[in-house]
Amino acid sequence: MNRVHSIFGxxxxxxxxxxxxxxxxxxxxxxxxxxxxxxxxxxxxxxNTVNFVRPGLVIKITAAEIAQDGTITARFKLTDPRGLGLxxxxxxxxxxxxxxxxxxxxxxxxxxYVAYTTRVRSNATTGxxxxxxxxxxxxxxxxxxxxxxxxxxxxKAPATLDRSATxxxxxxxxxxxxxxxLGTNRDDDVFNFVPDGSEVKVTRDVIKTATCNKCHDQLxxxxxxxxxxxxxxxxxxxQTSDPATGNTVDLKVMVHKIHxxxxxxxxxxxxxxxxxxxxxxxxxxxxxxxxxxxLACHEQGKGAxxxxxxxxxxxxxxxxxxxxxxxxxxxNHADLxxxxxxxxxTCHVPQGELEFDVSIHGAHQDLRFSRDLxxxxxxxxxxxxxxxxxxxxxxxxxKDKKGNPIKASDMASxxxxxxxxxxxxxxxxxxxxxxxxxxxxxxxSWTFNAALPANATGSYTVGIEGYRNVTxxxxxxxxxxxxxxxxxxxxxxxxxxxxxxxRRQVVSVDKCNACHxxxxxxxxxxxxxxxxxxxxxxxxxxxxRRPATALPAQSLDFRTMIHRIHTGKDLGFDFSTWxxxxxxxxxxxxxxxxxxxxxxxxNGSEQLxxxxxxxxxxxxxxxxxxxxxxxxxxxxxxxSIQAASHALxxxxxxxxxxxxxxxxxxxxxxxxxxAR
Length: 676
Hints:
By secondary structure, this protein is α+β, with helices and mostly antiparallel strands. The protein is built from 17 helices and 22 strands. Strands 15, 16, 18, 19 and 20 form a 5-stranded antiparallel β-sheet that branches. The protein has a 4-stranded antiparallel β-sheet with strand order 1-2-8-7, with no helix packed on it. β3 and β4 (114-115) form a beta hairpin. α2 (19-31) crosses α3, α6 (251-260) runs parallel beside α8 and α13 (558-567) runs parallel beside α14. The radius of gyration is 30 Å and the shape is globular.
């Protein structure tokens, strides 16, 4: 206790000179809405601590200049989220702030930066040395106001600098507030200017940070301080390479290769791809259909000045993914050497007359979204003759996107899946309905062969899935067969004829598609979460398809499976499931921060307590089997035996008591323990 008093006494003494500023901060913070949200540690901090510490960090470069002798000076501010100045040294405000700076220019008639701040890195193993763009913090800092500073670089711009060219100053830093249990606060900023005072007309702006954050939430690299693409492109240029591997770290090459990873021709041929000690040879891109989906990153209409850069082919950019092409000899390039980029756009135009040609869009065309597909559109109209022990009849329609009828017999795959009860699906039946008949207007009816359980109660659900095989560009060398899959639809019905109750919504496919672009699984037949959960219920395992030599079975419960897949390499064990073959997820990682439950969950569905009528989960490979519905979700990420023991200790024959400590207003609430 004396030690605790000593620590707090030291903290109070250390910041005694800041009482006036603290009072001002307290007045401002209490007078307006908190700048923090429920996913940040500061949101849960004591009000007195928040008012005293003023957590958070905002770095803002306000001006820059290059003197005639090449001296580079930047003016910047360090503030909290409300704009109140912070002390860089951590004397008058808590938390030492470390800031580093980059200075670079975009030379005339070029598109990428050349940095003035560089270093030479050597690798003892390979014997290589490389000049690298980098940051510095060994210049001169001078405080010129409340939270306002100047930084004079230790390196000077060359006498030959072009004063009419765009120059940029980048800054990144962190504020250490761990002694207050508020973590490390981070930020970065980039300031563009022209030394001769003219208007900035040239920038490097291809992809916005917000686009990366659809998956990465939040982009935070090199220890977490670099948080924006605008900053990344200042160092990751053709100027910089990796002495360990000899690979360039030019952003357009490196990012393409990292996200292509296991699909790179060079990797498939046995040559790993990495930077430094990091091996990206097993990485995959989650956005369907993989790295051929250029627009997953090159988003249009998001404000990037060079959003159409992907439509301007070059050997470096295209060769980063197609790395088995030898442009000098023409190997794997239709035997056509390409010694410059001047003629690339002659063949590789943005859009050709036909799909699947060598145009940019044509070469990356996804079969599922071909403009020539007629489309498959399902509608579920009604479910009749329902009741315990009965065989329900489902009426549905199949049409193309123009409204023309499609016969069930023309479908390559067509199934109705029934599951129930909707309070928590306990089991399902799936029936091939391609023999369903109708009057010829696209309407069909099907009576299930499998009767409802004799003790069925509550509400049940029917879902439809299927696809046609359609030949595209018939009679040409580009002829190919595409699966024209329909969007899943579900319909709910009550066993006793009362109002049907749908299953609870936990996640949404729109949130899945923030990363996956167009989630479509099981040969493109399943594309809606409402369809997935019909089969992936608490009782479902892969027992039926798992070889006897690979027992015990694996849980296929949706919450268990999805959490484990996205935790993958961090689970501490190999999570794998069996279909026709084994699918291992031990190399899978979540590109964002898994503490952000809201990245997937909707309507606060991760909060406790869960509904009281949920089923126990069958988990033959888990520490607990069966496992309670709450523990099934939590233990899917927190996979240690200690976590399982904690869950077991708080479960009785009556129920799980997790919400006592982890409920919304408890000391260890879900959002609070996952706060960042």
